[in-house]
């Protein structure tokens, strides 16, 4: 009990809880955020920690975004939508603020949090698999129990988001695999990597499989070229593509989903999964609305209302009936905030990529932060990740891992391994 009276101990326990909860439970995640806020606010020494808040560039960027969203409410006519939208977007300043009020995250704690995230992703996947067995006994056995939406029922997270977590957890686990497999941590990291790879395939998110393939291949070839084994790496990449294709082909659902994605003649009508064809139509409608609101956007309140009108005009009834957002974060920002909002977002993303080299120079070009950013940049092409807590919390927590490091933080041994 005496240990819990220590500020740093409480902070570490609460941060570990939030990272394990991210792929598991929104309720526990929010509880962790609330307790972290109280911990930072009520612990002596708050004045010194507030100084770090004042000088945080991350908080400056994210708070500017929230301010822009809030400002756009002034020219939004549909006031009923503003409250809910701003509630989600409030994390843009609240999450970095909470971490900074707790004194930031040093490199040693960051490594523990990354491993907690890997562990949390594996635990969530195992919960889903156990849940598939339960529903099999309760409802009758079906191959669909192990794929896509039905697989994630026990944790209540959409497959696209959980697949995003699995891809990131997979890359982080692979980065940490020791050269000597006799080391104690090697077995659970290897097990985690294999489980998360299987999880990505079972979750049947086509975009995340392609993201995993694209980022993983670039990472492999970049490292191989620097170390002089490019030929072997290219062969390994081909084998990896064939292995992934083989795993995908084992599932009828995956085969059907990829067939829809690759078919140029597919009807845009919404099927039981959604798909590439209807996304093209959503993007087309979004550009049509945004072209009339380039200077300021529609505003955060009118965004969905104006998009629904365009869906109706385009006879895109599935999107109109279910009030689909653009399913592209870049277009979503252009629609809501106009060219200024999109340019600010692109500037923020560019700044983050440049900062990755400043904060983790020991890890080489493809460091943890850049792997995260590349996965995120590609994933938001087909999903509006900032519109849901699953996506926004994931982005902000990982940004805070790397951009709230105290000046006195030491560098652990693992960061000297360049990849």
Radius of gyration: 22 Å
Q: What is the overall shape? A: globular
Based on secondary structure, the structural category is mainly alpha
Strand content: under 5%
Low-confidence stretches: 408-418
Order of helices and strands: HHHHHHHHHHHHHHHHHHH
The number of distinct helices, counting runs of at least 4 residues, comes to 19
Largest sheet data: none
Overall mean pLDDT: 87
As a percent range, the share of helical residues equals: 55-70%
Termini separation comes to 41 Å
Tally of structural domains: 1
- Could you tell me the number of beta strands? 0
Structure overview:
This protein has 419 residues and is mainly α. It contains 19 helices and no strands. The protein has helices at 7-21, 26-42, 46-54, 57-72, 82-89, 91-101, 107-139, 148-151, 159-175, 186-203, 206-227, 230-249, 252-262, 276-290, 303-313, 317-322, 329-359, 368-379, 389-403. The longest helix is centred in the first third of the chain and has 33 residues, at 107-139. The radius of gyration is 22 Å and the shape is globular. Mean pLDDT is 87; it is low at 408-418.
Topology:
Elements: H1 7-21, H2 26-42, H3 46-54, H4 57-72, H5 82-89, H6 91-101, H7 107-139, H8 148-151, H9 159-175, H10 186-203, H11 206-227, H12 230-249, H13 252-262, H14 276-290, H15 303-313, H16 317-322, H17 329-359, H18 368-379, H19 389-403
Structure summary:
The protein is built from 19 helices and no strands. It is mainly alpha-helical and 419 residues long.
What tags apply to this protein structure?
mainly alpha, disordered C terminus
